[in-house]
Amino acid sequence: VTGWSRCRKAGCGRPIWFGPNPRDPDRVLPYDDETEERLHFETCGATEWVTDDEGDRHSVSKCSACGARVWWQTTYRGKRRPMDIDGDVASWDCHFDTCPGERTRTGPRPEPEPVYGRARTEPPPPPPPPGYSRRMPGSKADWMRDLELSPPLSLDQLKSAFRALAMRHHPDMGGQAHAFIRIKWAYDHLKEYV
Ligand SMILES: [Zn+2]
Ligand SMILES: [Zn+2]
Questions:
Q1: Can you give the pLDDT at residue 164?
Q2: 70 DSSP β-pair partners
Q3: In angstroms, what is the span from residue 103 Cα to ligand 2's centroid?
Q4: Ligand nearest to the CA of 13
Q5: What is the C-alpha separation between 90 and 46, in angstroms, rounded?
Q6: Count of CA atoms in the C-beta half-sphere (13 A) of 185
Q7: In angstroms, rounded to a whole number, what is the distance separating the alpha carbons of residues 177 and 21?
Q8: Which of 47, 70, 144, 168 has the lowest tally of Cβ within 10 angstroms?
Q9: Given a cut of 70, is residue 173 above it in pLDDT?
Q10: For residue 43, which ligand has an atom nearest its CA?
């Protein structure tokens, strides 16, 4: 049903306009007004926002296990995962690695389950090389090109290409750090495809 209503979230209470959802004709979306230009989610007074180091804004939600503030990242594989927040800065640490788990009044804190196969002891991901960002990590074709590979991709091929280029580009071998970061970035992303 379209028409005016009022946001019922605590801390907001502003009038909102329910208008059509362009992706689903059977549903409505809350907008700021009848022009339907801006979704109310983006301006809701009850929504808290954090900004990441690339300048993107993310809405804050709450971890259901420990109650910490988190934001939700969509990874390049399309998975959603909660990420830590440091003050008003969206950090790139997955909250699953730091979540203390269920808040319990007595007894020891339970260990959180590892999620998405990423071991809790795994070091943080490398920084994105020039030309890429965590938000725009590149495509399979970009990474293949950076590793001087051509399809079809196999694990052996990927490993030997990376090893050969690492010999050339690793700073310990007299290479340039940015070139090494680039092939490592490509290697880490392509590993998911073999
Ligand atoms: Zn609101
Ligand atoms: Zn948590």
A1: 93
A2: 61, 84
A3: 9
A4: 1
A5: 18
A6: 25
A7: 47
A8: 168
A9: yes
A10: 1
Q: What percent of the chain has pLDDT over 70?
A: 87
> What is the 34 CA–ligand 1 centroid distance (Å)?
16
Return the amino acid letter for 71.
W
Token output for 180: 């090494």
d(C-alpha 26, C-alpha 45), whole Å: 27
| 97 CB burial (10 A radius; 0-12, 13-18, 19+) | middle
Task: Please name the amino acid found at residue 7.
Answer: C
Residues within 5 Å of ion ligand 2, judged at the Cβ atom: 63, 65-66, 68, 99
For the chain, the 3-state helix, strand and coil shares in percent, each to the nearest 5, are 25, 25, 50
What is d(CA 92, CA 100) in angstroms, rounded to the nearest whole number?
A: 18
Alpha helices in the chain (DSSP H): 140-146, 155-169, 177-190
Continuous H helices in 30-154: 140-146
DSSP state of 72: E
C-alpha 65 – ligand 2 centre gap (Å) = 5
What is the tens place of the pLDDT at every residue in 24-57? 888 899 999 999 988 898 788 888 889 998 888 8
